[in-house]
Write a structure and sequence with these properties.
single chain; alpha/beta; four-stranded parallel beta sheet; 3 helices; 17% strand
């Protein structure tokens, strides 16, 4: 699966996605691009977008995207917190 991590997430979170092709928004050259344009750029090139932006799903039409959006919710933006929540998500990843 081709996955892109939002720029607000720790880059090292990519190490948790073993077996997937993972990049980040900054690495793709898209840092600072707003959500609407960013989602257009992601469309067709990735299978999943991982973010902490809890407002993102409400901003988009359901079914309008060709990729899944995973919104991580953690008490802080520390890698340790995201990894703990990510392990929970990984168990459900195949359902996306």
């Amino acid at each position: 699966m081709r996955v892109i991590l939002d720029e607000c997430l720790p880059r090292k979170l990519a190490l948790e996605l073993v077996g997937h092709i993972v990049t980040t928004v900054p690495k793709a050259g898209w840092a600072g691009i707003l959500n609407g344009r960013l989602l257009t750029l992601i469309d067709g090139d990735f299978d999943a977008f991982v973010t902490v932006d809890k407002n993102l799903p409400a901003q988009q039409k359901k079914g309008a995207l060709s990729f899944g959006v995973v919104v991580l919710r953690a008490p802080s933006n520390r890698l340790k917190e995201h990894c703990r929540h990510w392990r929970w998500c990984k168990r459900r990843w195949r359902k996306i």
